Amino acid sequence: MRFYITIMALLLSSVVASPIARVNNRDRLESEAAIKKRFPMKGPGDGAGVAGITGREWIELSFKLHDICACLGFGSEEQKKQLIWRRLEGTVRMTFGLMEPSHGSDATFIKTKATRAVKDGVEGWTINGMKMWQSNQHKATHCIVFARTSGNPGNAIGITAFFVPAKAEGVKVLSYEWTFNMPTDLATVSFTNIFVPDSAIFGPINNGLAIAQSFVHENRIRQAASSLGATVFCITESVKYARQRKPFGEELAKNQAIQFPLVELAMQAEMLRLLIRKTAWEMDRMEQKEVERNISDKVSMCNYWANRLCTQAADRAIQVHGGIGYSRHKPFEHIYRHHRRYRITEDSEEIQMRKVAAYLFGYIGLKKEAFSKL
Ligand SMILES: *[C@@H]1O[C@H](CO)[C@@H](O)[C@H](O)[C@H]1NC(C)=O
């Protein structure tokens, strides 16, 4: 997790030595090097909430790291050795197989099953099932597949994650989904009678959902940072355009009808940045269990507000830019489509709000005990 937050902090902040990034030096150096290579930044003070990165590049980046973080947190020593550095080099790529055609947020009901098996004298598991929305499937060397290994549908316990070679016999890509006028790398994949040895188990047996929990927390705040970056980009570009464009001989920016909506967005972006940084900073200092108990609601707040704000900012940027903003000469329609997805993935706005509500009303979290006595 720390590794991840560091990267997020680097991107989010032009202040490289931000306290969010106070982590293990080695991780930090490695992540800085990887990021700098990909997105050369001028350094602190280049005015870069988004480090001069367009929405498009954020998108690429956003897919790069989550599996490394999961592997750092839950992989065996052997898996870490085998997968992480090769992943950074680009010779290993992983999908994250939790969702299925008929189960999304209700992951405890997944139908993919793994049963005990022996093949050529090796103890292991046979996996059968189907997964949907597998990002990067076309380039994947491994699929992380969540399957029920014990218990009943609806039980949180009894689900285990496995590393399955993406090219194993029995792995079949059925389709890549088109979404909101974008072709994607999000595949629907079937797994038929796939044998994996015990060493393919990723994380705790029967408690694979802990990986998913940690993954979604990290991804929720990562998405929030990404949406904030894209929001700031949309605002900044709109402001510049409004100063340059002179309909009827006057700067567009002189109109309060142009100013005020951008003021509202800019103000919310400022507030959101503080909440994201505070939450990320706290996450760096907590074990996953504490994140879940103490600040899961804050992570959800960051997530749903940032993602919603970004779609509003992209929509506003299109409006300020007029026809050219609606075209692909500008990135706003792409940002809109991409971040619109974030209002659904890593759980929908409604699931985030449900989480915030559960903390607010003390059904879970720190107030649970006190509120049970009301
Ligand atoms: C989480 O909350 C508990 C209860 O308020 C508190 O004792 C603990 O210090 C908090 N954890 C962190 C890391 O802040």
TrEMBL record:
Query: Which SUPFAM superfamilies does the entry mention?
Result: Acyl-CoA dehydrogenase C-terminal domain-like (SSF47203), Acyl-CoA dehydrogenase NM domain-like (SSF56645)
Its GO biological process annotations read: butyrate catabolic process; fatty acid beta-oxidation using acyl-CoA dehydrogenase
In this chain the Acyl-CoA oxidase/dehydrogenase middle domain maps to: 96-191
Domain annotation Acyl-CoA dehydrogenase/oxidase C-terminal: ranges: 206-358
UniProt superkingdom: Eukaryota
Task: Cite the GO molecular-function annotations of the record.
Answer: acyl-CoA dehydrogenase activity
Alphabetically ordered keywords of this record: FAD, Flavoprotein, Oxidoreductase, Signal
Coiled-coil stretches, from where to where? none
The signal sequence is 1-17
Q: Which cofactor does it need?
A: FAD
Protein name as catalogued: Acyl-CoA dehydrogenase/oxidase C-terminal
Specify the species.
Answer: Gymnopus androsaceus JB14
